Amino acid sequence: MKKVLRLIVGFIGLLFLSMGLRWLLAPAGIATELGMPLLDGVGRSTQIGDLSAFFITLGLCVLIALSTRNSQWYYPAILLLGLTAFGRMIAWLIHDAALPLQIIAPEIIFSVILLIAARVLKESVASKP
User: Fold this and answer.
1) Which whole-number Å values give the CA distances from 10 to 6, 58, 74, 83, 118, in the listed order?
2) Nearest to 34 by CA among 25, 46, 22
3) Angle value at C-alpha 57, between 26 and 125, nearest 5 degrees
4) Which CA distances in Å does 88 have to 45, 85, 129?
5) Residue 85, CB half-sphere, CA atoms under 13 Å: how many?
6) How far is 32 from 70, CA to CA, in rounded Å?
7) Residue pair 43/11 in contact by the 8 Å Cβ criterion
8) Whole-structure pTM over 0.85, yes or no?
9) How confident is the model at residue 124 (pLDDT cuts 50, 70, 90)?
């Protein structure tokens, strides 16, 4: 069970890390995949900078948690994903945005998986020096 969970968590971490790197190296493609145009000028700088940082931070937190078995590293990723889903729902409720359930559902599912991983894959206190 733990091996399967580690594989799933590793996939999630690598997925987000690769998305962040794509924002740095090939932003037009990933922007289209995420349903947005690639902006111009300062907007492009903000879009690439913010979204690459978001996804790289997610991926690195998950991979650091997985490799060190320090469950505290999962929580920033859980917060980022959970708040992203929350923000999307607020955008729909208040700002007339679309409600992309096909995007919100994985954010919530990944958050739950990472929460489970934080509890199951952590290093036991007895094994610390």
Assistant:
1) 6, 12, 12, 21, 13
2) 22
3) 150
4) 22, 5, 43
5) 17
6) 35
7) no
8) yes
9) low
For residue 84, give the nearest of 57, 64, 111, 66 by alpha carbon. Answer: 111
Cα 119 to Cα 55, 59, 114, 128: the distances in Å are 23, 18, 9, 17
> Per the structure block, which two tokens stand in for 120?
């199951």
Cα(first)–Cα(last) distance of the chain, in Å? 26
What's the CA angle centered on 38, arms 36 and 42, to 5 degrees? Answer: 125
Question: How confident is the model over 22-53, as pLDDT tens digits?
Answer: 999 999 999 999 999 999 999 999 999 999 99
Angle at which helices 2-25 and 101-120 cross, to 10°: 130
Question: To which H or E segment does residue 11 belong?
Answer: helix 2-25
State the DSSP string of 48-65.
HHHHHHHHHHHHHHHHHH
Look-up: residue for tokens 């091996």? 3
